[in-house]
Specification:
Blueprint: E1 4-13, E2 16-25, E3 28-36, E4 43-52, H1 57-67, E5 77-82, E6 94-99, H2 107-110, H3 124-136, H4 150-163, H5 165-170, E7 174-179, E8 185-191, H6 194-207, E9 217-220, H7 226-234, E10 239-242, H8 248-256, E11 260-266, E12 269-274
Parallel strand pairs: 3-6, 9-10, 10-11
Antiparallel strand pairs: 1-2, 3-4, 5-6, 7-8, 7-9, 11-12
């Protein structure tokens, strides 16, 4: 079932008001909790509350934990489930991720600045250093050089639009799509939040044991923000293309970590901001 909800609207066309029915995308809060410590004395900590579209919630939670450096692999997960707080909360709006007892949780690191807004006040240098520290704690893989044709990039938005079912009905949410180097669609996730859509992609890759995503292309239906490039770095995605514009810090982080960043991918053109050597004519 698609996450859409019917509403009644009044439409104004050509000096006339008329009553109509419409469809909007569902938006609800999701709280992510961690259970950790000895099995006989489990402790709990609330990690994040995000506004999301209720689909693929477990992937969203796991992708968030991985892209924020809280977990390093799926093997660290004991279980993941919904909880309803003794009936006080709406069903399926709280996800509890149980870590295995031998997983060490750095509570101080959980107090670090989750970059939730553009006005967080964290400077670019500190932001990049934080990502660098998280990347160093992940398993290191050898990367293989590759190049792709611009025609592959130009076809990505068309493929995306053909598969965005919820957007087709509502026009009100973002998409993250993962492609191979030939432009074949591998995975698509939609959400009211662009970062949530990408976390769902990364969480799915984590559970399928397909990380790192080294020879893949990520297409975002949004602009390129710092947080999106951070998540791409953590998942080792080498090419990130967006329909909108990048921010200055997104360009800086992409350049620092060797990501090919493409913006304004529309029609028959796009801009390459970093590492253009991967794209050949």
């Amino acid at each position: 079932m698609l996450p859409i909800s019917p509403v009644n609207i009044t439409k104004y066309i050509s000096d006339q008001f008329s009553a109509h029915s419409d469809l909007v995308v569902v938006e609800e809060p999701l709280e992510i909790r961690l259970g950790y410590g000895d099995l006989e004395a489990r402790q709990q900590k609330s990690i994040s509350v995000t506004m999301r579209t209720p689909t693929h919630d477990f992937d969203l939670a796991l992708g968030f934990l991985y892209s924020e450096g809280i977990i390093k692999s799926y093997n660290q997960i004991l279980s993941i489930k919904y909880c309803v707080d003794a009936g006080k909360q709406a069903t399926e709006n709280i996800v509890r991720v149980e870590l295995k007892p031998d997983v060490t949780l750095n509570l101080q690191s959980l107090q670090r600045n989750f970059y939730a807004t553009s006005s967080c006040g964290v400077c670019g240098k500190a932001s990049i250093e934080a990502i660098d520290n998280m990347v160093c704690e992940l398993p290191q893989y050898e990367t293989q050089p590759f190049q792709i044709n611009p025609d592959v990039i130009l076809q990505l938005p068309k493929t995306l639009s053909q598969h965005q079912k919820t957007f087709e009905y509502t026009g009100g949410l973002h998409a993250a799509a993962l492609f191979d180097l030939e432009g074949k669609l591998l995975l698509l996730r939609e959400d009211i939040g662009r970062h949530n859509a990408l976390d769902k992609i990364i969480g799915n890759a984590l559970t399928q044991d397909s990380l790192p995503l080294q020879n893949k292309i990520l297409l975002m239906s949004s602009r390129a923000s710092f947080e999106l490039i951070q998540k791409a770095v953590m998942a080792s995605i080498p090419i990130v293309a967006t329909i909108g514009a990048p921010s200055s810090l997104a360009v800086q982080v992409a350049n620092q970590f060797g990501i090919t960043l493409i913006g304004f991918l529309r029609g028959e053109q796009f801009n390459v901001y970093t590492d253009g050597e991967r794209i050949i004519v």
